[in-house]
Design goal:
Elements: H1 2-10, E1 20-25, E2 35-39, E3 42-47, E4 54-61, E5 67-77, H2 103-122, E6 130-131, E7 145-151, E8 154-158, E9 165-167, E10 192-199, E11 202-207, E12 210-213, E13 217-222, E14 225-230, H3 241-253, E15 260-264, H4 270-277, E16 281-286, H5 289-298, E17 303-306, H6 309-312, E18 322-325, H7 333-342, E19 347-352, H8 355-367, E20 370-378, E21 388-395
Parallel strand pairs: 3-5, 6-20, 15-16, 15-18, 16-17, 18-19
Antiparallel strand pairs: 1-4, 2-3, 4-5, 7-8, 7-10, 8-9, 10-11, 11-12, 13-14, 19-21, 20-21
Organism: Brooklawnia cerclae
Binding site for S-adenosyl-L-methionine: 236, 265, 286, 326
Domain TRAM: 14-74
Length: 400
């Protein structure tokens, strides 16, 4: 028994959530905004660290047997890319992953993530450059659509992976458009979820979906067209996003007058409008009925179907010259990809907000005979790990 007590006395103390451990050396960036490190042989995904740094970490989640989550606690050897976060609640609020990183270095990290996902999941090996777009001030002041929590006389943001309210600092959220930053403080006596939308046509404020100020349907502009969109509906949140994505899609597709284009997950008709203006005959599909009604008004020259894409494919034309896909974060998935391939399009534009889903779908395209012709990546979400990509696919050239 004495030997057992001695053995137990020399064992390292168990690491529990909230404990500080390390120091450890931080490894590469991973999808999701974390860096990969190892603690006593176990994989730990560390937030608010940078590759190459030496840090101690505070363990935040030990619920997974194969890996843990942690936050950087003390930075012992900082990266030259590290800066002081401009917001006092950065690292506590769940909205920002990269405020501690120089903006140009953030784009380098995102490029690394896209390249790694393409390589690992699709077998595609290429360098990636992340492009900046006009409309933010050094990574701040770009977000046109914001959600806040109201409770107990306070207004704030959600903590990371939590519904806990993190009170806003006095200046408001620095990612929000300046026109709407003060609005949340006028609602501290209320409860629920507050949305502040700064559209091209003005500001709308909603609480739990009810319009408190402004209009329920707002106007946005892109590539010379006006689009009606519900204030609480989907529109890109970066003011430069819609123009950047339309330009990338159209440059990649190279539409010709008279061609037939199919726009899948078309929303209120952003890409359909650009394709019509290029002389194409356009058919769009969107599951959100309200968005389709707006699309029909925004782009009356096109035809639109309401329904989930995977359930609506049979109602579409059997052939198309061009296809645009702008699927949700989960991607288009194999059944939709295979149907799209069967349309025989000469060019396909895939707009992706998740690099892992993009890579999986590109692998399916490759299996079905389409190859990646070009890829552009855009920093539409500065200070966060999120990134948008536009992939152009063409039929693979078969060797004789």
């Amino acid at each position: 028994m004495g030997t057992d007590r001695q053995a137990r006395a020399t064992e390292p103390p168990a690491i529990v959530e909230g404990a500080v451990a390390g120091p450890i050396e931080v490894g590469p960036i991973a999808h999701g905004g974390h860096c990969v490190a190892r603690l006593d042989g176990r994989v730990v995904f560390v937030r608010h660290a940078l590759p190459g740094e030496t840090v101690t970490v505070r363990i935040t989640d030990t619920s997974h047997e194969r890996f843990w989550w942690a936050d950087a606690a003390t930075v012992i050897a900082p990266s030259p890319d590290r800066v002081s976060p401009p917001c006092p609640i950065a690292g506590v609020c769940g909205g920002c992953d990269f405020q501690h990183v120089r903006v140009d270095a953030q784009r380098g990290l995102k490029a690394d993530v896209v390249a790694e996902q393409l390589s690992r999941l699709a077998g595609i090996h290429r360098s990636v450059t992340v492009e900046a777009v006009p409309g933010d001030d050094g990574g701040l002041g770009w977000r046109t659509r914001m959600r806040y929590l109201l409770a107990d006389g306070r207004v704030g943001m959600r903590a990371w992976r939590s519904g806990r309210l993190v009170p806003l600092p006095d200046g408001g959220c620095l990612l929000a458009r300046p026109e709407g930053r003060d609005e949340p403080f006028a609602h501290t006596s209320e409860t629920g979820e507050l949305q502040v939308v700064v559209a091209s046509s003005g500001m709308t404020v909603l609480r739990d979906g009810e319009v408190l100020a402004g209009k329920a349907v707002v106007e946005e502009r892109a590539s010379g067209r006006a689009y009606k969109v519900r204030a609480d509906g989907f529109w890109q949140v970066h003011p430069g996003a819609a123009d950047a994505l339309v330009e990338a899609v159209m440059a990649g597709l190279r539409p010709e007058t008279g061609e037939h284009a199919i726009d899948l997950y078309c929303g209120v008709g952003l890409f359909a409008g650009a394709l019509v203006d290029a002389g194409c005959r356009v058919t769009g599909v969107e599951s959100d009925r309200a968005a389709v009604e707006l699309a029909r008004g925004n782009v009356p020259e096109a035809r639109f179907h309401t329904g989930r894409v995977e359930r609506t494919l049979g109602r579409l034309p059997r052939r198309a010259d061009l296809v645009v896909l702008d699927p949700p974060r989960t991607g288009a998935r194999a059944a939709v990809v295979r149907h799209v391939v069967g349309l025989g399009a000469r060019r396909i534009a895939y707009v992706a907000c998740d690099p892992a889903a993009l890579a999986r779908d590109l692998a399916t395209f490759a299996d079905e005979g389409y190859e990646l012709a070009s890829l552009r990546a855009f920093d539409l979400f500065p200070m966060t790990h999120h990134i948008e990509c536009v992939a152009i696919l063409t039929p693979a050239v078969r060797e004789s």
